[in-house]
Amino acid sequence: MSTLYAGYQDQIYRSGTAGRRPPFTTDHSRLERAARDVMAPQAYGYIAGAAGSEATMRANRAAFDHHGLVPRVLRDVSERDLSIELFGSRLPTPLLLAPVGALGLAHPDGEIAAARAAEETGVPLVLSTVSSHSIEEVAAAAPRARRWFQLYWPNDTELTLSLLERAVANRYEVLVVTLDAFALAWRPRDLDRGYLPFHRLHGLANYLTDPAFRHLLPKPAETDPAGAVQRWSELFNDASRTWASIPFLREHWHGPLVLKGICHPGDARAAVDSGADAIVVSNHGGRQIDGGVAALDALEAVVAAVGDRTTVLFDSGIRTGADTVKALALGARAVLLGRPYVYGLALGGTKGVIHVLRGLLAELDLTLAMTGHRTPAALDPSVLVRT
Ligand SMILES: Cc1cc2nc3c(=O)[nH]c(=O)nc-3n(C[C@H](O)[C@H](O)[C@H](O)COP(=O)(O)O)c2cc1C
Protein backbone atom coordinates (compact mmCIF):
# COMPACT_ATOMS: atom_id res chain seq x y z
CA MET A 1 0.00 0.00 0.00
CA SER A 2 1.12 3.55 -0.64
CA THR A 3 2.27 5.01 2.65
CA LEU A 4 2.45 8.60 1.53
CA TYR A 5 -1.14 9.66 2.23
CA ALA A 6 -2.95 6.64 3.70
CA GLY A 7 0.08 6.44 6.00
CA TYR A 8 -1.43 9.17 8.18
CA GLN A 9 -3.83 6.50 9.45
CA ASP A 10 -0.97 4.25 10.50
CA GLN A 11 0.80 7.18 12.14
CA ILE A 12 -2.32 7.97 14.21
CA TYR A 13 -2.67 4.35 15.40
CA ARG A 14 1.03 4.11 16.28
CA SER A 15 0.84 7.35 18.26
CA GLY A 16 -2.29 6.02 19.94
CA THR A 17 -0.41 2.97 21.14
CA ALA A 18 2.12 5.35 22.71
CA GLY A 19 -0.75 7.20 24.44
CA ARG A 20 -1.06 10.13 22.05
CA ARG A 21 -4.32 11.12 20.36
CA PRO A 22 -4.76 13.15 17.16
CA PRO A 23 -4.89 16.92 17.89
CA PHE A 24 -8.66 16.93 17.30
CA THR A 25 -11.36 14.85 15.68
CA THR A 26 -10.82 13.01 12.40
CA ASP A 27 -14.61 12.98 11.88
CA HIS A 28 -15.60 15.78 9.55
CA SER A 29 -19.12 15.95 10.93
CA ARG A 30 -17.71 16.74 14.41
CA LEU A 31 -15.12 19.21 13.16
CA GLU A 32 -17.56 22.08 12.74
CA ARG A 33 -18.92 21.67 16.28
CA ALA A 34 -15.43 21.51 17.76
CA ALA A 35 -14.46 24.72 15.93
CA ARG A 36 -17.62 26.48 17.09
CA ASP A 37 -16.59 25.89 20.70
CA VAL A 38 -13.31 27.79 20.25
CA MET A 39 -14.45 30.66 18.04
CA ALA A 40 -16.07 34.02 18.75
CA PRO A 41 -19.79 33.65 17.89
CA GLN A 42 -19.76 36.31 15.16
CA ALA A 43 -16.65 34.80 13.52
CA TYR A 44 -18.18 31.34 13.62
CA GLY A 45 -21.46 32.69 12.24
CA TYR A 46 -19.67 34.36 9.34
CA ILE A 47 -17.69 31.23 8.43
CA ALA A 48 -20.35 28.55 8.98
CA GLY A 49 -23.24 30.57 7.60
CA ALA A 50 -24.73 30.69 4.12
CA ALA A 51 -27.35 32.59 2.15
CA GLY A 52 -30.99 32.88 3.24
CA SER A 53 -32.49 29.71 4.66
CA GLU A 54 -29.17 27.95 3.90
CA ALA A 55 -31.00 25.51 1.62
CA THR A 56 -28.22 25.60 -0.98
CA MET A 57 -25.60 24.72 1.61
CA ARG A 58 -27.70 21.74 2.71
CA ALA A 59 -28.32 20.74 -0.91
CA ASN A 60 -24.57 20.76 -1.52
CA ARG A 61 -24.13 18.08 1.10
CA ALA A 62 -27.23 16.08 0.21
CA ALA A 63 -26.09 15.77 -3.41
CA PHE A 64 -23.09 13.70 -2.33
CA ASP A 65 -25.46 11.24 -0.66
CA HIS A 66 -27.30 10.74 -3.95
CA HIS A 67 -24.24 9.12 -5.48
CA GLY A 68 -23.01 5.80 -4.10
CA LEU A 69 -19.46 4.57 -4.63
CA VAL A 70 -19.20 0.98 -5.80
CA PRO A 71 -16.32 -1.00 -4.23
CA ARG A 72 -14.08 -3.05 -6.50
CA VAL A 73 -11.76 -5.87 -5.47
CA LEU A 74 -8.70 -7.81 -6.69
CA ARG A 75 -7.33 -5.06 -8.93
CA ASP A 76 -3.76 -4.57 -7.55
CA VAL A 77 -3.93 -1.11 -6.06
CA SER A 78 -0.76 -1.56 -4.01
CA GLU A 79 1.00 1.38 -5.69
CA ARG A 80 -0.98 4.58 -5.93
CA ASP A 81 -0.21 8.08 -7.09
CA LEU A 82 -2.51 10.96 -6.13
CA SER A 83 -0.76 13.51 -8.32
CA ILE A 84 -2.53 15.30 -11.15
CA GLU A 85 -1.52 17.36 -14.13
CA LEU A 86 -2.73 20.97 -14.10
CA PHE A 87 -1.70 23.79 -16.44
CA GLY A 88 1.33 21.87 -17.63
CA SER A 89 2.74 21.08 -14.19
CA ARG A 90 2.05 18.45 -11.55
CA LEU A 91 0.30 18.92 -8.27
CA PRO A 92 0.93 16.25 -5.62
CA THR A 93 -2.80 15.76 -5.02
CA PRO A 94 -6.12 16.85 -6.55
CA LEU A 95 -6.79 19.15 -3.58
CA LEU A 96 -6.51 22.92 -3.15
CA LEU A 97 -7.26 25.29 -0.30
CA ALA A 98 -10.19 27.43 -1.47
CA PRO A 99 -9.97 31.21 -1.19
CA VAL A 100 -11.58 32.13 2.11
CA GLY A 101 -11.63 35.77 3.16
CA ALA A 102 -10.55 37.19 6.52
CA LEU A 103 -8.90 34.06 7.91
CA GLY A 104 -7.73 36.20 10.82
CA LEU A 105 -11.23 35.60 12.22
CA ALA A 106 -10.36 31.95 12.72
CA HIS A 107 -6.80 32.37 14.02
CA PRO A 108 -4.48 35.34 14.58
CA ASP A 109 -2.00 33.94 12.03
CA GLY A 110 -4.79 33.64 9.43
CA GLU A 111 -3.55 33.16 5.87
CA ILE A 112 0.05 32.90 7.06
CA ALA A 113 -0.81 29.76 9.01
CA ALA A 114 -2.77 28.39 6.04
CA ALA A 115 0.13 29.12 3.67
CA ARG A 116 2.56 27.31 5.98
CA ALA A 117 0.24 24.29 5.90
CA ALA A 118 0.22 24.58 2.11
CA GLU A 119 4.01 24.62 2.11
CA GLU A 120 4.18 21.56 4.36
CA THR A 121 1.65 19.49 2.41
CA GLY A 122 2.16 20.69 -1.19
CA VAL A 123 -1.55 21.57 -1.38
CA PRO A 124 -1.78 24.99 -3.11
CA LEU A 125 -3.35 27.92 -1.27
CA VAL A 126 -5.67 30.19 -3.23
CA LEU A 127 -5.26 33.51 -1.42
CA SER A 128 -8.40 35.64 -1.25
CA THR A 129 -8.39 39.32 -2.24
CA VAL A 130 -10.09 40.02 1.08
CA SER A 131 -7.42 38.41 3.23
CA SER A 132 -6.27 39.37 6.72
CA HIS A 133 -2.61 39.22 5.62
CA SER A 134 -1.34 40.78 2.43
CA ILE A 135 -0.12 39.17 -0.78
CA GLU A 136 3.45 40.06 0.24
CA GLU A 137 3.21 38.89 3.86
CA VAL A 138 1.85 35.50 2.82
CA ALA A 139 4.54 35.00 0.15
CA ALA A 140 7.31 35.99 2.58
CA ALA A 141 5.98 33.68 5.32
CA ALA A 142 5.66 30.62 3.06
CA PRO A 143 8.02 31.13 0.10
CA ARG A 144 7.86 27.49 -1.00
CA ALA A 145 4.06 27.19 -0.83
CA ARG A 146 2.26 26.90 -4.15
CA ARG A 147 0.24 30.07 -4.24
CA TRP A 148 -2.66 31.13 -6.45
CA PHE A 149 -4.37 34.51 -6.18
CA GLN A 150 -8.15 34.97 -6.16
CA LEU A 151 -9.41 38.27 -7.50
CA TYR A 152 -12.56 40.09 -6.51
CA TRP A 153 -12.42 42.35 -9.50
CA PRO A 154 -12.60 45.94 -8.22
CA ASN A 155 -14.50 48.67 -9.96
CA ASP A 156 -11.25 50.56 -10.63
CA THR A 157 -8.68 49.78 -13.31
CA GLU A 158 -5.61 51.10 -11.46
CA LEU A 159 -6.45 49.08 -8.36
CA THR A 160 -7.11 45.97 -10.45
CA LEU A 161 -3.78 46.28 -12.25
CA SER A 162 -1.95 46.98 -9.01
CA LEU A 163 -3.34 43.80 -7.38
CA LEU A 164 -2.36 41.75 -10.44
CA GLU A 165 1.16 43.21 -10.46
CA ARG A 166 1.60 42.41 -6.78
CA ALA A 167 0.44 38.83 -7.37
CA VAL A 168 2.94 38.40 -10.21
CA ALA A 169 5.79 40.05 -8.28
CA ASN A 170 5.19 37.64 -5.38
CA ARG A 171 4.99 34.54 -7.57
CA TYR A 172 1.33 33.64 -7.39
CA GLU A 173 1.06 31.19 -10.27
CA VAL A 174 -2.61 31.22 -11.20
CA LEU A 175 -5.33 33.89 -11.17
CA VAL A 176 -8.77 32.80 -9.98
CA VAL A 177 -11.45 35.38 -10.71
CA THR A 178 -14.57 34.91 -8.62
CA LEU A 179 -17.67 35.82 -10.59
CA ASP A 180 -20.55 34.84 -8.30
CA ALA A 181 -20.09 37.48 -5.59
CA PHE A 182 -20.78 40.70 -7.50
CA ALA A 183 -23.37 41.40 -4.82
CA LEU A 184 -23.22 40.50 -1.16
CA ALA A 185 -25.84 37.86 -0.45
CA TRP A 186 -28.57 38.03 2.20
CA ARG A 187 -26.97 36.18 5.10
CA PRO A 188 -29.20 36.11 8.19
CA ARG A 189 -26.53 34.87 10.63
CA ASP A 190 -24.47 38.00 9.91
CA LEU A 191 -27.44 40.33 9.44
CA ASP A 192 -28.90 39.42 12.83
CA ARG A 193 -25.65 40.53 14.46
CA GLY A 194 -25.15 43.49 12.14
CA TYR A 195 -21.75 41.91 11.52
CA LEU A 196 -19.66 42.09 8.37
CA PRO A 197 -15.93 41.56 9.01
CA PHE A 198 -14.84 44.07 6.37
CA HIS A 199 -16.75 46.87 8.05
CA ARG A 200 -14.55 46.22 11.07
CA LEU A 201 -11.41 46.35 8.87
CA HIS A 202 -10.95 42.55 8.90
CA GLY A 203 -9.86 41.18 5.54
CA LEU A 204 -8.76 44.48 4.02
CA ALA A 205 -4.97 43.95 4.21
CA ASN A 206 -4.53 43.88 0.43
CA TYR A 207 -6.39 47.17 0.02
CA LEU A 208 -4.83 49.06 2.92
CA THR A 209 -1.31 48.17 1.67
CA ASP A 210 -2.10 48.99 -1.95
CA PRO A 211 -0.75 52.28 -3.35
CA ALA A 212 -3.57 52.53 -5.90
CA PHE A 213 -6.23 52.04 -3.20
CA ARG A 214 -4.57 54.48 -0.84
CA HIS A 215 -4.45 57.00 -3.64
CA LEU A 216 -8.25 56.75 -3.93
CA LEU A 217 -8.84 57.62 -0.26
CA PRO A 218 -9.79 61.16 0.69
CA LYS A 219 -7.86 60.83 3.98
CA PRO A 220 -5.28 58.21 5.12
CA ALA A 221 -6.91 54.98 6.36
CA GLU A 222 -5.01 55.35 9.66
CA THR A 223 -6.81 58.59 10.51
CA ASP A 224 -10.12 57.81 8.79
CA PRO A 225 -10.82 54.06 8.91
CA ALA A 226 -14.55 54.56 8.33
CA GLY A 227 -13.76 56.48 5.12
CA ALA A 228 -11.49 53.63 3.97
CA VAL A 229 -14.27 51.08 4.55
CA GLN A 230 -16.74 53.26 2.68
CA ARG A 231 -14.37 53.58 -0.30
CA TRP A 232 -13.69 49.85 -0.20
CA SER A 233 -17.40 49.00 -0.38
CA GLU A 234 -17.82 51.35 -3.37
CA LEU A 235 -14.89 49.74 -5.19
CA PHE A 236 -15.27 46.15 -4.13
CA ASN A 237 -17.12 44.80 -7.13
CA ASP A 238 -19.07 45.73 -10.21
CA ALA A 239 -22.39 44.09 -11.09
CA SER A 240 -22.44 45.69 -14.54
CA ARG A 241 -19.66 43.50 -15.96
CA THR A 242 -20.39 41.02 -18.75
CA TRP A 243 -18.52 38.30 -20.63
CA ALA A 244 -17.14 41.09 -22.83
CA SER A 245 -15.13 42.27 -19.78
CA ILE A 246 -13.04 39.09 -19.49
CA PRO A 247 -10.55 39.84 -22.32
CA PHE A 248 -9.22 42.74 -20.20
CA LEU A 249 -8.02 40.21 -17.64
CA ARG A 250 -6.71 37.89 -20.34
CA GLU A 251 -4.67 40.80 -21.64
CA HIS A 252 -3.21 41.74 -18.26
CA TRP A 253 -2.64 38.31 -16.70
CA HIS A 254 -0.17 36.09 -18.50
CA GLY A 255 -0.46 32.95 -16.36
CA PRO A 256 -3.35 30.52 -16.18
CA LEU A 257 -6.73 32.24 -15.76
CA VAL A 258 -9.49 30.44 -13.87
CA LEU A 259 -13.10 31.60 -13.57
CA LYS A 260 -14.81 30.59 -10.32
CA GLY A 261 -18.51 30.37 -9.55
CA ILE A 262 -19.88 28.73 -12.70
CA CYS A 263 -22.96 26.48 -12.41
CA HIS A 264 -24.77 26.88 -15.75
CA PRO A 265 -23.61 25.05 -18.90
CA GLY A 266 -24.17 28.25 -20.91
CA ASP A 267 -21.87 30.20 -18.58
CA ALA A 268 -19.33 27.39 -18.83
CA ARG A 269 -19.34 27.67 -22.62
CA ALA A 270 -19.00 31.47 -22.38
CA ALA A 271 -16.06 31.03 -20.00
CA VAL A 272 -14.26 28.76 -22.45
CA ASP A 273 -14.99 31.14 -25.33
CA SER A 274 -13.67 34.07 -23.28
CA GLY A 275 -10.23 32.47 -23.10
CA ALA A 276 -10.26 31.09 -19.55
CA ASP A 277 -7.91 28.16 -18.94
CA ALA A 278 -10.21 26.51 -16.40
CA ILE A 279 -13.43 27.00 -14.49
CA VAL A 280 -14.47 26.23 -10.95
CA VAL A 281 -17.96 24.81 -10.65
CA SER A 282 -18.96 26.33 -7.33
CA ASN A 283 -21.89 28.01 -5.61
CA HIS A 284 -19.58 29.64 -3.08
CA GLY A 285 -20.41 27.00 -0.48
CA GLY A 286 -24.09 28.02 -0.62
CA ARG A 287 -23.19 31.53 0.54
CA GLN A 288 -24.56 33.47 -2.42
CA ILE A 289 -27.88 32.17 -3.69
CA ASP A 290 -30.52 30.52 -1.49
CA GLY A 291 -32.70 27.76 -2.89
CA GLY A 292 -29.94 26.97 -5.35
CA VAL A 293 -28.91 23.88 -7.24
CA ALA A 294 -26.35 21.67 -5.48
CA ALA A 295 -22.91 22.36 -6.90
CA LEU A 296 -22.35 18.62 -7.46
CA ASP A 297 -25.48 18.43 -9.61
CA ALA A 298 -24.33 21.49 -11.58
CA LEU A 299 -20.97 19.77 -12.12
CA GLU A 300 -22.50 17.00 -14.19
CA ALA A 301 -24.21 19.44 -16.57
CA VAL A 302 -21.14 21.63 -16.91
CA VAL A 303 -18.82 18.69 -17.61
CA ALA A 304 -21.26 17.48 -20.25
CA ALA A 305 -21.13 20.94 -21.88
CA VAL A 306 -17.40 21.76 -21.76
CA GLY A 307 -15.53 18.85 -20.17
CA ASP A 308 -13.76 18.08 -23.44
CA ARG A 309 -12.74 21.74 -24.01
CA THR A 310 -11.44 22.92 -20.65
CA THR A 311 -10.30 21.92 -17.20
CA VAL A 312 -13.09 21.78 -14.66
CA LEU A 313 -12.40 22.25 -10.96
CA PHE A 314 -15.02 21.91 -8.23
CA ASP A 315 -15.94 23.13 -4.77
CA SER A 316 -18.90 23.47 -2.39
CA GLY A 317 -19.68 20.72 0.05
CA ILE A 318 -16.48 18.66 -0.04
CA ARG A 319 -15.93 17.25 3.44
CA THR A 320 -14.34 13.82 3.00
CA GLY A 321 -12.09 11.75 0.80
CA ALA A 322 -15.17 9.95 -0.53
CA ASP A 323 -16.74 13.29 -1.52
CA THR A 324 -13.56 14.10 -3.40
CA VAL A 325 -13.62 10.78 -5.27
CA LYS A 326 -17.24 11.45 -6.29
CA ALA A 327 -16.45 14.92 -7.65
CA LEU A 328 -13.41 13.61 -9.54
CA ALA A 329 -15.46 10.72 -10.94
CA LEU A 330 -18.02 13.23 -12.24
CA GLY A 331 -15.31 15.05 -14.17
CA ALA A 332 -13.55 17.51 -11.86
CA ARG A 333 -9.76 17.54 -12.25
CA ALA A 334 -9.30 18.81 -8.68
CA VAL A 335 -11.39 20.07 -5.78
CA LEU A 336 -11.12 23.07 -3.49
CA LEU A 337 -11.74 22.66 0.21
CA GLY A 338 -13.43 25.55 2.03
CA ARG A 339 -14.82 25.56 5.57
CA PRO A 340 -13.17 22.34 6.89
CA TYR A 341 -9.66 23.75 6.69
CA VAL A 342 -10.84 26.98 8.30
CA TYR A 343 -12.16 24.93 11.22
CA GLY A 344 -8.78 23.20 11.40
CA LEU A 345 -7.14 26.62 11.44
CA ALA A 346 -9.37 27.74 14.32
CA LEU A 347 -8.60 24.58 16.28
CA GLY A 348 -4.86 24.41 15.78
CA GLY A 349 -3.32 27.03 13.44
CA THR A 350 -0.93 25.58 10.86
CA LYS A 351 -0.92 22.18 12.58
CA GLY A 352 -4.71 22.15 12.60
CA VAL A 353 -4.91 22.80 8.86
CA ILE A 354 -2.29 20.09 8.24
CA HIS A 355 -4.30 17.61 10.34
CA VAL A 356 -7.46 18.29 8.31
CA LEU A 357 -5.60 17.99 5.00
CA ARG A 358 -3.73 14.81 5.94
CA GLY A 359 -6.95 13.22 7.15
CA LEU A 360 -8.82 14.07 3.98
CA LEU A 361 -5.94 12.94 1.77
CA ALA A 362 -5.59 9.67 3.67
CA GLU A 363 -9.29 8.99 3.18
CA LEU A 364 -9.02 9.94 -0.47
CA ASP A 365 -6.10 7.58 -0.95
CA LEU A 366 -7.95 4.71 0.78
CA THR A 367 -11.22 5.37 -1.07
CA LEU A 368 -9.41 5.45 -4.39
CA ALA A 369 -7.92 2.04 -3.58
CA MET A 370 -11.22 0.57 -2.42
CA THR A 371 -12.91 1.62 -5.64
CA GLY A 372 -10.14 -0.19 -7.50
CA HIS A 373 -8.15 2.81 -8.76
CA ARG A 374 -4.53 3.86 -8.52
CA THR A 375 -4.73 7.44 -9.77
CA PRO A 376 -7.31 10.23 -9.78
CA ALA A 377 -7.17 10.34 -13.59
CA ALA A 378 -8.44 6.75 -13.75
CA LEU A 379 -11.76 7.67 -12.11
CA ASP A 380 -14.88 7.97 -14.22
CA PRO A 381 -18.66 7.92 -13.57
CA SER A 382 -18.76 4.11 -13.68
CA VAL A 383 -17.58 4.11 -10.06
CA LEU A 384 -20.90 5.71 -9.05
CA VAL A 385 -24.49 4.56 -8.80
CA ARG A 386 -27.23 7.17 -8.39
CA THR A 387 -29.10 6.30 -5.21
C1 LIG B 1 -15.98 32.23 5.37
C2 LIG B 1 -15.85 32.08 3.87
C3 LIG B 1 -15.27 33.11 3.16
C4 LIG B 1 -15.10 32.97 1.77
N1 LIG B 1 -14.42 33.94 1.08
C5 LIG B 1 -14.20 33.78 -0.24
C6 LIG B 1 -13.40 34.70 -0.95
O1 LIG B 1 -12.86 35.64 -0.38
N2 LIG B 1 -13.24 34.50 -2.27
C7 LIG B 1 -13.82 33.45 -2.93
O2 LIG B 1 -13.64 33.31 -4.15
N3 LIG B 1 -14.56 32.54 -2.27
C8 LIG B 1 -14.74 32.68 -0.95
N4 LIG B 1 -15.45 31.72 -0.28
C9 LIG B 1 -15.97 30.54 -1.00
C10 LIG B 1 -14.92 29.44 -1.04
O3 LIG B 1 -13.85 29.77 -1.89
C11 LIG B 1 -15.52 28.13 -1.55
O4 LIG B 1 -16.18 28.36 -2.77
C12 LIG B 1 -16.50 27.49 -0.56
O5 LIG B 1 -16.10 27.69 0.77
C13 LIG B 1 -16.57 26.00 -0.85
O6 LIG B 1 -17.56 25.41 -0.10
P1 LIG B 1 -17.31 24.60 1.28
O7 LIG B 1 -17.05 25.63 2.34
O8 LIG B 1 -18.58 23.87 1.45
O9 LIG B 1 -16.10 23.69 1.06
C14 LIG B 1 -15.60 31.83 1.11
C15 LIG B 1 -16.19 30.81 1.85
C16 LIG B 1 -16.31 30.92 3.22
C17 LIG B 1 -16.91 29.77 4.01
Task: Describe the 3D structure.
With 387 residues, this protein is an alpha/beta fold. It has helices at 7-17, 28-38, 41-48, 55-65, 110-121, 135-141, 157-169, 188-191, 205-208, 211-215, 225-235, 246-252, 265-273, 295-306, 321-329, 339-370; strands at residues 67-69, 84-86, 89-91, 95-97, 125-127, 147-151, 175-178, 257-262, 278-281, 311-315, 334-337, 384-386. The chain is globular. It has a single domain (7-386), classed as Alpha-Beta Barrel (TIM Barrel). Helix 5 packs across helix 6. The model has no long low-confidence stretch (mean pLDDT 97). The strands form three sheets. An eight-stranded parallel β-sheet has the order 4-11-10-9-8-7-6-5. Strands 1-12 form a two-stranded antiparallel sheet. The protein binds flavin mononucleotide. The site of flavin mononucleotide has 23 residues, from helix 3. Residues 46-47, 60, 98-101, 128, 130, 150, 178, 260, 282, 284-285, 287, 315-318, 337-339 line the site of flavin mononucleotide (FMN).
Identify the bound ligands.
flavin mononucleotide
Q: Secondary-structure element sequence?
A: HHHHEEEEHEHEHEHHHHHEHEHEHEHE
CATH architecture: Alpha-Beta Barrel
- Which structural category do the helix and sheet elements fall into? alpha/beta
Poorly predicted tracts of residues: none
- What would you call the shape? globular
Biggest sheet features: 8 strands, parallel
Helix coverage percent of residues? 40-55%
Mean of residue pLDDT values: 97
Name of the level-1 CATH class: Alpha Beta
- Radius of gyration, CA atoms, in whole angstroms: 20 Å
Number of spatially distinct domains: 1
Cofactor: FMN
Keywords: Flavoprotein, FMN, Oxidoreductase
Family: Belongs to the FMN-dependent alpha-hydroxy acid dehydrogenase family.
Active site: 284 (proton acceptor)
